[in-house]
Design a protein that fits this description.
By secondary structure, the protein is α/β, with parallel strands linked by helices. Helix 1 links the parallel strand 1 and strand 2. Helix 1 packs parallel to helix 2 and helix 5 packs across helix 7. It is globular. Bound molecules: phosphoenolpyruvate (PEP). The site of phosphoenolpyruvate has 14 residues, from strand 8.
Length: 250
């Protein structure tokens, strides 16, 4: 069988519950389950339950939160917790998305606490890492990605860290129409795996690429053996386009 791929849709602040259900209906008309790929949807928190219910019959589809707090409950206005995510059918969470880091000031330390909490809750974290344009231009991509990853790995037992999925998302590529060259993304993915190995993480961490992926460039990215799937924002909002993308690749 061909290698397993993971396709993750980050809907950001789009698709209220009714739109999410309509999306799910159309998408399921177009996409049949495949043993060689897992599909994840990250709707806004208010649409998590509707999305999870709409995909309830699809074992290949998982739904997660875009953002969680590490505490299970408490006085944290505006936050949602992992037990809440689980209660509405969620199976995982994005952590450290660049919009959380750069628009809302999320730190490496906070992302690390979230990763640990998602793993402890036995849910799936997808940890996002990536450099800004200035950092890339200064030749600091590996340093920055390494720092973000190290912050998360430092506090984890290697066998727990082995359950991570990493998404390499260069900040300059997210929502800009500028996609990384497949070979450049693959080099960063290799660096991520080398670092994970240095922390004693067993096995091969799945590493996704994200940043201005569309139906025209996805296949070239997926042709890189280091790229295990895609995390996609804009091009995941339309069910027909997203159905096309998740059908690509070996
Ligand atoms: C994202 O939000 O993770 C993302 C990669 O967005 P876009 O595909 O729109 O660049």
């Amino acid at each position: 069988m061909s290698r397993a791929l993971l396709f993750a849709a980050n809907w950001k602040m789009h698709h209220a519950p009714e739109a999410a259900v309509q999306f799910a209906r159309r998408f399921q008309e177009l996409v049949a389950p495949r043993a060689d790929r897992a599909l994840w949807f990250f709707p806004p928190a208010v649409s998590l339950e509707a999305t999870a219910q709409a995909f309830a019959r699809r074992a290949d589809v998982h739904v997660g939160a875009q953002h969680v707090h590490w505490e299970a409950k408490g006085a944290f206005t505006g936050e949602i917790s992992l037990p809440m995510v689980r209660a509405v059918g969620g199976a995982g969470a994005l952590v450290g998305h660049s919009e959380r880091r750069h628009l809302f000031g999320e730190t490496d330390e906070q992302a690390a606490r979230k990763v640990a909490a998602v793993l402890a809750a036995r849910l799936q974290p997808i940890l996002c890492v990536g450099e800004t344009l200035a950092e890339r231009d200064a030749g600091r991509t590996e340093d920055v990605v390494g720092r973000q990853l190290t912050a998360a790995l430092r506090g984890l037992a290697p066998e727990d860290a082995a359950r991570l999925v990493i998404a390499y998302e260069p900040v300059w590529a997210i929502g800009t129409g500028r996609v990384a060259r497949p070979e450049d993304a693959a080099a960063v993915h290799r660096h991520i795996r080398t670092l994970a190995a240095a922390f004693g993480v067993p096995g091969r961490l799945p590493v996704l690429y994200g940043g201005s992926v569309n139906a025209g460039n996805a296949l070239g990215l997926l042709a890189e053996p280091e790229i295990d799937g895609l995390l996609v924002g804009g091009a995941s909002l339309d069910p027909d386009t997203w159905a096309e993308i998740v059908g690509l690749g070996a």
